[in-house]
Amino acid sequence: MINLSQLALKARLTVQLVLGLREAALATLDRMLELAPHNAHALASRAHLRAGLGDRRGALADGERLTALPGASAAHFFNHGFLQEAEGQYEAAEASFRRALALDDRLDRAWFGLGLVLVRLGRLDEALKAFERNTQLQPMSPHGWYELARIHERRREPEEVARIIRHLQGFEPRVAARLTQETGISAKAAATT
Prior knowledge:
This protein is an all-alpha fold. It has helices spanning 4-18, 22-35, 40-52, 56-68, 74-86, 90-103, 108-120, 124-137, 142-154, 158-169, 173-183, 187-192.
């Protein structure tokens, strides 16, 4: 059975978000959660909206509630990890990303998030594996490739950086150029290495 008040609130929320009325959208989400405290979509939306409005504590609290819901999904743990990572809570974010991956090991963005926090924690070998898995799952996304190249640079493996630049030149030349500029490995060297 469709709850008409929830449907009306969802429509109002959509309009508010499209118009950039974030404070009003937050109030609408609060009302939605009063009516349905276990509404995962509303909790996730409110967490990200709170983060965008600078309410970090509220965003993290919503993330906690989201992962505590019965049947919490990989996406819920990813969202919480994303919020934790943004707050510099790297160990907690690692745990959230790993929980997401335990539920769905094909969640490419969780591999990416895990890689980012592992870099922050100085665990480059593990981060390298996470970004390799991310690029296997999302081969046409330049973000994982970029992070892989940066790790190879830190490990003093210029031939691997060159290989990635060559790869990126085929579908994302701007990212390849950025890596060339940042690493000092010329595009010509990358093409002949």
